[in-house]
Amino acid sequence: MPERRLTPDEIDRLARKRAGAKLGWYIHATVYVLVNLVMLGMSHHGFGTRPWSVFPVLGWGLGLVLHGVSVFVLGRGSGVREYLVRRERERLERENSGPSP
Q: Staple partner for 53: which of 43, 49, 59, 83, CB 3.0–4.6 Å?
């Protein structure tokens, strides 16, 4: 089945959505680095006897990685997400074109 071509308005809307998602990740990564640098400094210069800052770095880092996967891998309009959308669309079309009750 040939894929439908996008209109210029749809292309613009999709481009803005994807750019916004990427910008959101860049902001997330910047805040992650800045906050964790502050926590690292606090951890090593008087706020506790052990380096406790590794725990928030790892936890938040996992969240940042998952956010990046959702933006750059699953959200780019091809690959896994497009494959799943195409399969679901085909399944729904088959169900919808079946015999009427």
A: 43
With CA atoms as reference, report the closest residue to 53 among 35, 65, 66, 67.
35
Amino acid of residue 52 = W
Tokens of 21: 């998602």
Is the pLDDT score of 65 beyond 60? yes
Q: Return mean pLDDT, the chain.
A: 82
Contact 44, 36 (CB under 8 A): no
pTM of the complete model: 0.68
Which runs of consecutive H residues, i.e. helices, occur in 1-101? Answer: 8-44, 54-68, 80-96
Residue 72 in 3-state DSSP?
helix
